[in-house]
Write a structure and sequence with these properties.
- It is a single chain.
- The chain is mainly alpha-helical.
- It has helices at residues 32-52, 75-102.
- The chain is 48% helix and 0% strand.
- The longest helix is centred in the C-terminal third of the chain and has 28 residues, at 75-102.
- The mean pLDDT is 76.
């Protein structure tokens, strides 16, 4: 009888998984540093954008670039809201991607 072939072992002594969808040279875990850095940048941008909004009081939004308008929302505040929503969506997508890669 021929001896059974053993699976190749990886760095941790565990058998390597072959993922044909990504080919032999690519592994999704190589994207972890990129997603982690992007998560920190998006998180800090999101905190900054939220603090720039003017609430009931002036907040950080009243520091200088958003003038107080009478009877409506100023165009700068609308654009700030759109940008905040876009960054929040990117932050959520990146969080899900990090979870999928690390799980």
């Amino acid at each position: 009888m021929r001896p059974r072939r053993q699976a190749r072992e990886g760095a941790a002594g565990l058998p390597r998984k072959r993922n044909s969808a990504f080919g032999d040279g690519y592994h999704p875990c190589s994207m972890i540093p990129l997603f982690a850095v992007l998560q920190v940048l998006l998180g800090s941008a999101l905190v900054t954008l939220v603090l720039m909004h003017s609430g009931r009081e002036a907040g950080f939004g009243g520091i200088g670039f958003t003038p107080t308008s009478q009877g409506g929302t100023h165009i700068v505040e609308k654009n700030l809201t759109r940008l905040t929503v876009a960054v929040a969506i990117l932050f959520t997508v990146n969080t899900i991607a990090l979870y999928r890669v690390l799980a």
